[in-house]
Amino acid sequence: MKWLAFFLALFLFGCGDSPPGDKRLLEKLRILAVVASSPEAYPEQSITIIPVISDINGSGRELTLKVEGCPYEDIVEDDENTCRQSKHRAELFSGTVSGHLSPDSIGIPAFSSPNYTGALKAISVVLPESDIIFSDKSGFQQYLGVNYAITLEIWANGLENSVKGYKKVKVSVNTRKNLNPDINDFLYKGQSFLTFPTDDVSITPGFGQGSQENYTSYDFSTGTQENKDETLTVSWMVSDGDLRYYNTENENSVSFSPPVKIEAARNLVLVGVVRDGRGGTDVLIRYY
């Protein structure tokens, strides 16, 4: 049931609880994605995670973030998918949030005025040693990988409820590690989509070379294996106007109907979050 709950959450939100209202609309405080420098890594490897959030109508209010880590099997659903009951719980960050200082280095705008939709500062994570993460796991299971959970909770003063999410990082001894996909452009009629539209447009995601990896899938019920190509799922979000779909696959396009004008003192914000179904994630945010 835990795995079913996770995949339902991944389909609906991609990072824990589904936000209220229309998932396509940037409106409430929410976690859009968590990008790990290495979605698959070795035991004791140091990685970084970058939370990407939106508080577009928060007017720059102070936000507090708490980040913890633990083996995913230690997470208890009845405890709101937190690491609180894990004896291997690691406190990774606790404090007020701020945007990163070098947007060009990661390709995602910083969480800052006036749009308050972007990346926070990177958080360092040292993955557990083998004796912890691979406890009671066979050599084959260690090769396939064991999930390490990174849980996030963010809130603002005066909010009745906090917003929660989580990211899974696979820990394995496999030397052919999964990498993040690369979403590097929004395209309209084959060209970069860079200006505020006045009419309905059909937007296609642009991916970097090698984003769609080939991997080996194992069927434990039959004992067989199969080589597969990843399916890249793009979740679309916008601050104003209307997107026809929340999710598209691979290079399929999404229709967008722009607003007549932006009422707020900010830009139109368009977000695409790509996931490869194996933990790899990337984010593209554009302001118009």
Please give the largest β-sheet.
5 strands, mixed
Structural domains: how many: 1
Strand content: 35-45%
Mean pLDDT: 89
Q: Classify the oligomer.
A: single chain
Give the CATH level 1 class: Mainly Beta
Number of β-strand runs: 20
The proportion of residues forming helix, as a percent range, comes to under 10%
Q: In angstroms, what is the radius of gyration?
A: 19 Å
CATH topology: S-adenosyl-L-methionine-dependent methyltransferases
How far apart the termini lie comes to 42 Å
The best one-word shape is globular
- The SS-based structural class is mainly beta
Which features characterize this protein?
5-stranded mixed beta sheet, 4 helices, S-adenosyl-L-methionine-dependent methyltransferases, 288 residues, mainly beta, disordered N terminus, 9% helix, 5-stranded antiparallel beta sheet
